[in-house]
Design brief:
Order of helices and strands: HEEEEEEEHEHHHHHHHH
CATH architecture of the largest domain: Sandwich
Largest sheet: 4 strands, mixed
CATH topology of the largest domain: Immunoglobulin-like
Number of strands: 8
Shape: globular
CATH superfamily of the largest domain: Carboxypeptidase-like, regulatory domain
CATH class of the largest domain: Mainly Beta
Distance between the termini: 72 Å
Helix content: 40-55%
């Protein structure tokens, strides 16, 4: 009898544990906001499942997902955001995703002399003085490439002072370091997409690839999730990249019934 009770206990335990380990896809409902208001036409991509959707006029969206999937939210006027779905996020009735407005960084300021006299020869002579920038002034790190926001956050999370730096340990345990690495990876891929996107004017995509003007950005999101996209861009071969875009445009037009 004690052995029978033990086997019954094991059966009940496995019946409770196994469903918890199996986390099938479900329809996740969410809402993208900016300053408390819903944002329409935001691209919501499930990078783990290669699926995508767009928010409606109230900022709401529905996407098939499961715990551990990575969602990418992207819009022209807002900063991109990645979310790794937790079990708590999957169980919430409406997942709220606030996005911040995108602000372009200002270029480096160059100081030039303004004491112009009106005499061209004299002003040209005065203008021959060195331009005052970081390199000509001998400032430290004058030639260092500034870190992006994602790079700064990852650097802060993975470094620390003291005999035993706690910051990297705590962030490694919590998963923040892994999350920031994924964010940095996504930012670099986004920069690749922007580089290709603006290599040609919109008229080329419209006339040569037969893409509607309002679908060009969506087409490049379609290209970006292709596993071979990054390797193709890294070759720097303009002809191969264009051939890749031609192939993908045919697949995109077919998938969206644009022909």
């Amino acid at each position: 009898m004690p052995n029978n009770k033990f086997y019954v206990f094991l059966f009940l335990l496995s019946a409770w544990v196994l469903p918890a380990q199996t986390d099938p896809n479900m329809q996740l409902a969410g809402m993208v906001t900016n300053q408390g208001a819903g944002v329409a036409d935001v691209h919501v991509m499930n990078l783990s499942a290669n699926q995508a959707t767009i928010t409606d006029q109230d900022g709401r969206f529905f996407v098939s997902a499961k715990t551990g999937d990575t969602l990418l939210f992207s819009a022209v006027q807002l900063q991109r955001k990645s979310l790794v779905l937790t079990r708590e996020m999957m169980m919430t009735p409406l997942l709220l995703v606030p996005l911040e407005e995108f602000v372009n960084a200002l270029d480096e300021v160059v100081l030039r002399p303004y004491n112009l006299s009106g005499d061209l020869a004299q002003d040209l002579a005065n203008g021959a003085s060195p331009v005052k920038v970081a390199s000509t002034m001998g400032l430290p790190n004058a030639f260092a490439k500034p870190r992006t926001q994602a790079e700064r956050k990852l650097f802060e999370a993975s470094t620390g002072g003291g005999v035993i730096p706690l910051n990297p340990i705590l962030n490694g345990i919590s998963g923040r370091t892994k999350y920031l690495k994924n964010v940095l990876k996504r930012d670099r891929k986004y920069n690749q997409t922007e580089q290709v996107r603006y290599s040609y004017p919109d008229s080329v995509y419209i006339e040569e690839l037969k893409l509607p003007a309002d679908r060009i950005d969506d087409f490049f999101y379609f290209c970006e999730v292709d596993p071979g996209f990054s390797a193709m861009v890294n070759t720097g071969d303009a002809l191969r990249i264009w051939e890749f875009l031609e192939r993908k445009s045919k697949a995109y037009r077919s998938a969206n019934q644009l022909d």
